[in-house]
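Hi V.,

You were right to ask for the full record rather than a summary. Here it is.
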Amino acid sequence: MDPKFKAAIFVVLLGSLGIGAIALTRFFRGSAGEFLASGDERVVGGDFDGAIADYDRAIRLDPKSAAAYCRRGVTKGFAGAWTEAISDFDRALRLEPGNALALSRRANAKRETGDLTGASADYQIALELDPTDPVAFRGRGDLFKAKGDFASALADYTKAIDLDPTAAETFARRGIARIRLNDLAGAIEDYTRAIALDSEDAYSFYNRGNAKRRTGDFDGAIQDYTRAIELEPTNPAFFNNRGLARKGGGDPTAAIADYDGALAIDAKYRSAYLNRGLARAARHDLEGTLRDLDRAIQLDPADATAFRDRGFVKEEMDDLEGALGDYGRAIELDPTSGEAWTDRAVARRRSGDWEGALTDFNRAAELKPQDAAIYEVRGNTNACLRRWAEALADYRRFCALSRSEQDYTRLHIWLIRSRQGEAAEATAEFSGYLEQRAQDADEWFPLLAGYALGRVPKAELLATATSADNADQPGRRCEAWYFVGLKQIFAGDLESARASLRECLATGARNEVQFQLAESELKALGAD
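Predicted structure:
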């Protein structure tokens, strides 16, 4: 057993007397004292049953020994018998009502049994009696953490550290509170200090890895997860999270190997199936993704998010019926999920159920009225249904909520206003947007916008869309032909417009909104 852990045991067991193990043996000249000392030694050796038996004997010989009851309660807590531990602390407190150690340890036990109210009361009295007990502050910090009050937990862990800066586990617990408060730099510092005090604690490496991963330091996270695995190679969570870091670092193949490692340890470790599925999707292995999500759903058929993920995969595989079924199940499991309603709305739109899609979008907007993306996709749906006023309102709502990624929404606003007889005003508004728009390396959208405003020739737009650089991007060809067709409609050249819109559909880019808008325009033009 680690010597630091032995020392911690002695602090817990002997704290109420304020004396060391040798002094304890000398202090007790009778048999009760000998059994107490023997029990303490057994605890240090990890023999909890033997220690409890020794404390039983000490209590039989001296039934008024609060120390004996307190020690037996602590040991029963080590063994996981929290209810029995509480009974022993109760007996100790009846004998010594002002025993702060018995109160704080009873609070720990009550916390473990879920009696948070009782634990809070015990911690309060214990710390009033002894405000120098770092274990009591740490325990109350754990209580606040269990309640979700991470700021108060942080304050108590800090007080415990001030009183005892040598306790690695207190730094580790403060690190958890800091992660939950999004103080990742502080959490990393705390775990680093915990590791300096105890370099064999796998969980400090693991949690530091979690904090590093969230900062985007994937290499540092991988190193910490690797060390955690070296210290505890049978923990599937360590492999799973190293997989997350590897995928975040752009290596889905290595990530899959880690998820495999997690599942080799625990074939029912559900997170690994979910994460391996996402990594396989990154490698375009949709069949493999589907198998992993199927298994995850078998393990927990009440997880709405897993059904949403599987629905998306089925949609990518053009299994719209299956996707709609999964999205519907996700809604049944969590009818307050705006994302699930949006997912089903998009699938319904793809399947041709436009009115059903609008119904779902409307419900999503009710649930998440500040979610800009909902208004964008609902605006696209209204535009496909040629409900221009509704589409325009949705696009403007999107722009009010989202200060980024407005390019195509602004372009669609220009289109709607132009076809409604507001061409000059629309052009002025869109030109103003382009002037203040941040420039990026990809010049495709400025080219498209320039064509829409009459500043770029059709030949240049189409040549760029069909160039070798864009050969693997059918979406750009789809967009180009759609806007060519729209401008031809505005010019009254309907025959050319039909031909251009058919070229748009010939790209096969069915998931592009311009593809769906082209279908709507052709239908309005009376084309087959």
